[in-house]
Amino acid sequence: MLGLKLATDPRWVNIVESNIEEILTDHAWCEQKAASNAISIVTYNSEIEELVTEMLEIAREELEHFQMVHNIIKERGLTLGRERKDHYVNELFKFMKKDGSRRDALCDRLLFSAMIEARSCERFKVLSENIKDEKLAKFYRDLMISEAGHYTTFLGFARKYQDNIDIDKRWKEWIEYEGSIITNYGKKETVHG
């Protein structure tokens, strides 16, 4: 369904399991950034009522996920560390088109968002199927389903609001680009790392 070029090696979970505090901290901040991204889309496209309504819902869900991860951190006697840079997301950001109309920019921002959700969904699936901690396995399975919904929402809005962009062609470009950079990741105990 996601069409990603490269699947995450399940052995990545061994790295994750070596430092659960780090993956949980990184994951919490990923959820915060996802909420901020949805709010940014609202800020720049406030005239599109349907989009605003849905982005506010996604922002709320992402903040709920942040709270859920924080609760797991507290339950385990761990500490929410400082925010981490997400080099993967920063590399994706560079691929966004900076020219064209406002509508073109919106569509590429939506595709950027869909790409992040697609990879997060894929990583959560790998975690849910391979992590030994049963509670975390269920948690990541539930979040995988949520991320898949966000992915389809972003992609659907990109298709709906495009003016003169071939969204399917541009999405294939995103998939190719992501496939070229993801080979540098999957080596750290972070969601995208």
From TrEMBL:
Q: Which InterPro entries match?
A: Ferritin-like, Ferritin-like_SF, tRNA-Hydrxlase_MiaE
Please give one Gene Ontology molecular function term for this protein: tRNA 2-(methylsulfanyl)-N(6)-isopentenyladenosine(37) hydroxylase activity
Instruction: Name the Gene3D superfamilies on file.
Output: 1.20.1260.10
Q: Which domain of life is it from?
A: Bacteria
Q: Name one GO biological process term.
A: tRNA modification
One Pfam family hit: MiaE
**Name this polypeptide is given:** tRNA--hydroxylase
Q: Which organism is it from?
A: Flavobacterium anhuiense
